[in-house]
Specification:
Oligomer: single chain
Structural class: alpha/beta
Helix content: 40-55%
Shape: globular
Low-confidence stretches: none
CATH superfamily of the largest domain: serine acetyltransferase, domain 1
Radius of gyration: 22 Å
Strand order of the largest sheet: 3-6-9-12-14-15
Order of helices and strands: HHHHHHHHHHHEEEEEEEEEEEEEEE
Largest sheet: 6 strands, mixed
Strand content: 5-15%
CATH class of the largest domain: Mainly Alpha
CATH architecture of the largest domain: Orthogonal Bundle
CATH topology of the largest domain: serine acetyltransferase, domain 1
Amino acid sequence: MDVTPVVEGIVAQMLPLYRVAETDAPDCIGPVLPHRRRVVEALDQLLQLLLPAGASPEAVQPELLHLFLAERVSRAYRLLTVEVARALPLRWRGAFAQQVADGDGGGGAAEPIADGDLMAAAAELVSAFCRRLPALRCQLVQDIRAAYNGDPAAISFAEVMLTYPGLWAIASHRIAHELYRLDIPVVPRIISEHTHAWVGVDIHPGAVIGNGFFIDHATGVVIGETAQVGNNVKLYQGVTLGARSFPLDEHGFPQKKIRRHPTVEDNVIIYANATVLGPVTIGAGSEIGGNVFLTADVPPGSRVRGRNEVDVRQPKE
């Protein structure tokens, strides 16, 4: 059977469904966009750099550590520079950027960069990102220590680095967050959604997370874009730091760039499957019990139980 007429008939029907243009629209196949696999390859290089004991497929010889680190930084730099250059036009061509330019989104529109200057602009941004890598390494060492100290089942730091999906989620988030802070479109989300599919933890790159962060068991944790998490915070599986119903603009669309998610202060523990929604604050030193559904502020030093009973603990004299 000659399938050519069938194929040609399908293609003829589908061709009008694609728009080729340098714009951001649901039916458009342009402009040039970042390549997901290349971004993930860069992430892999960065994870090997930051967590060589857990992420590197090869044993790191102490005598070759300098070369090992240089190779990973160089490879990640090259990959990211190309993909960031491909992403930058979305600063002014993206749908929300166009909405802002038309006066409907609030704030000012991004200034376009000439095509010939995109690689140089991308290289400058990636250089700024790479200069943050030593600080990220220091943060992850604290995260490893928090996991070891926070889980009685952990018998070595090596076990944490090799087997804890929460650590890999945190490492990927810290990378994505630094790129997000540099206002690089799309690339941070590619990293976060790859990690979401990989370990089952969904942390938006915009979320601000302090030092010594530990997600025990990890699976099913969701942390939204405008969430702020303090130092020495511990979450268990299934925790959601999410948003309530979204306020709409005059056109009926959800408002963007506003605070929608919780703030969790220092030394807080949130147990399994608890849900905290909206721009509320969980006070320092509090404990939120399992399966709690919370939409209100919690004072420091509180215990919130399953029926949302709040017990404010008195400080020891």
